[in-house]
Design goal:
The protein is built from 20 helices and 23 strands. It is of the alpha/beta class. Helix 9 packs parallel to helix 11 and helix 17 runs parallel beside helix 18. The longest helix has 15 residues.
């Protein structure tokens, strides 16, 4: 069944931390719920948000070896104390990125449960995205004993000299996973991106995953690029192959699954390079950072980049790796959400964001803390999400709008863009805490000669303006961290 994910040029994706989400559903229902027994009403509620896909984060089998390591790590246990006071050992279910096997965990409903969840979403037109971790697996993954040639290996000397970076699995010393900037991760072992047999196994794994969902979010995708692998591992991985990892893997998967979507978690300004290597969308951490830290000029500069590049980015204000938006952005969380989630490209919403959750849960934990709903945040999203569900924000054409002003007006703190499709929208945000005034040119010349009604459903305001006011420069006055989200309609 074709879903909106396959059809949308600018999809909205809803991320769910699967294990604690199911726990919370079961607690409300007074029963045990897995992916195969999620109530229809829950799927209805998700579909009603106007999303194109659900990303069920963390469905694969977790690692007992990884859990044992986590329970002895003082930094991790301190994070558990902070997020979930009174946690017990049974709350530590293991990292979803310490994959023991690419089979749905039985405690989440197994493969049959995932198939039922996918069918329920597809019946509502919603696609399904799952995880793929290309660079490492758990130390108890079957490959570590059956196919040690797929890994970065070490020697007994390496193990003795640096036991935090190497471990023995069976008769082989394997390297722990790492990136080039930080110490090794103790609960995972590193796959060799240059090894042809690993690449073939990755293609087989992804083909199997593609039978179960509509797309994958690839964890730390840039770590498999030839130059990054070389910088991280040097001679340990052997000679550099002619082809990069992703241009080898992605086309091979698309032979049988041409509509399958690939999303990259990407950093270090490698988004464009990963797009060229075949990814449909790449994380836009730069926009997130600039919205968090400013100034507005950096946001405008970022958005002025090539439109083709912009259309293949993933915008967000939180995900499982970032602090909750209600904490990171506090009183400016609504304007930040408007600024990020009305951009071109894919947009990511994190479960709990709509209720104003403040606690970032470590991914090792299988239970959320009790948190009250923030009525102001929930009220904002009740008004905002129906706007974001408009077809133009999924299929239309986005472009920046020119801004201007005068000395002392603060117009440099404005950012503005438009959408053109079945409807038309003008979005203007004030990325500062003080009042600003300025002019914004709407780039639709055919507005001349008519009177237009500007309707902002998120602020419940209506303005009537002549077309020349819009095209030649609409006067805008916004308070601190305020916005206009204006649908442009004929006035009579």
């Amino acid at each position: 069944m074709t879903t909106r994910l396959a059809q949308s040029a600018h999809p909205v994706i809803y991320e769910i931390n699967t294990w604690p989400w199911l726990h919370e559903l079961g607690r409300r229902d007074g029963s045990t719920i897995d992916l195969g027994t999620v109530p229809d009403a829950t799927w209805d509620e998700l579909a009603a948000l106007g999303i194109d896909a659900v990303w069920l984060m963390g469905v694969w089998r977790r690692s007992p070896a990884g859990i044992a390591i986590a329970l002895t790590d003082p930094d991790l246990t301190a994070s558990f104390d902070a997020a979930l006071p009174g946690w017990a050992a049974e709350d530590v279910v293991g990292s979803p990125y310490c994959v023991r096997d690419y089979v749905v965990d039985d405690r989440l409903g197994g493969p049959a449960g995932l198939a039922a969840a996918r069918a329920a979403l597809a019946a509502r037109g919603v696609g399904l995205i799952l995880d793929f971790v290309p660079n490492h697996v758990a130390p108890d993954h079957p490959w570590t004993t059956q196919h040690p040639e797929r890994f970065v290996t070490g020697t007994e000397t390496d193990l003795a000299a640096d036991p935090k970076s190497f471990l023995r699995v069976g008769d082989t010393v394997l390297a722990n996973g790492r990136d080039p900037y930080f110490p090794a991760w103790p609960d995972v072992v590193q796959l060799n991106a240059f090894e042809p047999r690993l690449r073939a196994a990755a293609i087989d794994t992804l083909n199997d995953i593609a039978e179960q969902c509509d797309g994958v979010r690839c964890d730390m995708a840039m770590l498999m690029m030839n130059d990054v692998v070389t910088r991280t591992w040097g001679d340990r991985v052997g000679p550099v192959p002619d082809a990069d990892y992703w241009p080898t893997v992605i086309p091979a998967v698309r032979v049988a699954h041409p509509a399958f979507r690939f999303l990259a978690e990407a950093y270090w300004d490698l988004e464009w390079a990963l797009q060229q290597q075949g990814f449909d969308f790449c994380y836009d951490k730069r926009l997130y950072d600039r919205l968090e830290h400013g100034p507005a000029a950096q946001v405008n500069g970022h958005l002025s980049g090539d439109v083709g590049y912009q259309q293949r980015l993933v915008r967000f204000v939180e995900n499982h790796d970032e602090p909750r938006a209600a904490t990171a952005f506090a009183g400016r969380a609504p304007v930040t959400a408007v600024a990020a989630l009305t951009q071109t490209g894919a947009r990511l919403i994190h479960d709990g964001q709509l209720q104003g959750r403040r606690t970032r849960l470590p991914v090792f934990l299988g239970r959320f803390p009790d948190e009250p709903v923030d009525p102001a945040v929930a009220g904002f999203y009740r008004a905002f999400l129906p706007v974001l569900a408009d077809a133009t924000f999924h299929q239309g054409r986005w472009q920046l709008a020119e801004r201007s002003g005068w000395s002392g007006s603060g117009f440099d703190n404005l950012a503005a863009w438009c959408w053109d499709g079945d409807t038309r929208w003008l979005v203007v945000v004030n990325l500062s805490g003080g009042p600003v005034t300025g002019q914004v040119r709407v780039p639709f010349d055919d507005l001349h000669g008519h009177t237009w009604r500007l309707v902002d459903p998120t602020n419940d305001v209506v303005y009537d303006r002549h077309g020349h006011d819009l095209v030649d420069g609409l006067f805008v006055r916004l308070g601190g961290w305020d916005w206009h989200l204006l649908r442009i309609e004929h006035a009579g």
